[in-house]
Design goal:
Elements lengths: L4 H4 L7 H12 L6 H7 L18 H22 L5 H12 L1 H10 L19 H17 L1 H16 L2 H5 L5 H12 L3 E7 L10 E7 L2 E8 L2 H17 L1 H8 L3 H4 L9
Antiparallel strand pairs: 1-2, 2-3
Helix pairs in contact: 3-7, 4-5, 4-7, 4-8, 6-7, 7-8, 10-11
């Protein structure tokens, strides 16, 4: 597919030389095959295809970049926090790679100058910048190798854009993350919460159930409605992160499954 791209697509309105300069200024990396980077900023809404009829968009690179990003962050957290439990490391990683955080990082890096998509009023209200960031990581990985991709992640994302101490002490909104995932893959998400009288046997008076596709996939208890729903959402996200336990719901949907490994665990 990639070998035909240079002659079948015109992705950006400005010159290749200017585009190379922008990529170099953002990544600190000199591209070899510029086509990968052009493709990384091509959103599917443009509906462009190559000569063979294959879609020209950044989704495949996004899939690859998501995996490289998750693995790099997991490795760095493992080394940096040698006495932190697996559960806490997972929470920190999830706060780094959640979609809103990636969107914010991409916009700070100036991605709105590079992304090609149908005109929208406010790109910050979409997933497009964060998706393009993952696709860019995939492009670097394919073009310059794993070492350069990891270097970009560490220098331009982890150390430059993320305040780890603040992130560690920031609570994660698992309910919003689950709803966002459901919207992305068109799975209806619903929470039903019941309140019970507090007794000496029950200190958590709210029980919440999280439904995905009208199936109960997670349950949580808490002293407030919000706490119970957050715990229920967290349970579902744990299942989403585990491909095998969630495959019945996904029904072998490869489009949804391609991001399952990178979906946030709790």
């Amino acid at each position: 597919m990639f070998k035909h791209l240079s002659t079948t697509m015109k992705l950006l309105s400005f010159s290749e030389k200017k585009f190379r300069g922008l990529v170099k200024s953002i990544t600190g990396i000199r591209p070899v095959n510029i086509t990968y980077y052009q493709l990384a900023f091509q959103h599917k809404s443009v509906m462009q295809k190559d000569a063979q009829g294959n879609p020209l968009n950044n989704e495949r690179l996004e899939f690859l970049g998501d995996a490289v990003l998750g693995a790099t962050i997991a490795h760095d957290l493992f080394v940096r926090f040698p006495h932190t439990s697996e559960g806490e490391l997972t929470k920190i990683r999830s706060r780094i790679v959640n979609r809103s955080n990636l969107n914010s990082i991409a916009l700070k890096m100036g991605f709105e100058k590079l992304i090609k998509t149908h005109q929208i009023s406010d790109m910050s209200c979409t997933h497009i910048p964060g998706d393009a960031l993952e696709a860019l990581i995939g492009a670097i990985y394919i073009d310059r190798g794993e070492k350069k991709a990891r270097k970009f992640i560490r220098r331009k994302i982890i150390f430059k854009q993320i305040d780890l101490p603040e992130l560690i002490h920031t609570d994660t909104n698992y309910k919003s993350m689950l709803i966002e995932w459901g919207q992305k893959y068109k799975y209806p998400i619903q929470f039903i919460t019941e309140e019970y009288p507090i007794s000496k046997y029950r200190h958590q008076s709210f029980i919440a159930k999280a439904y995905v596709n009208d199936v109960v996939m997670g349950e949580g208890a808490g002293g407030s409605k919000k706490e119970a729903q957050q715990k229920a959402a967290c349970k579902v996200l744990e299942m989403v992160a585990n491909r095998e336990r969630f495959k019945v719901l996904l029904k072998n949907d490869s489009e949804a499954q391609k991001h399952v490994a990178g979906i946030l665990e709790c």
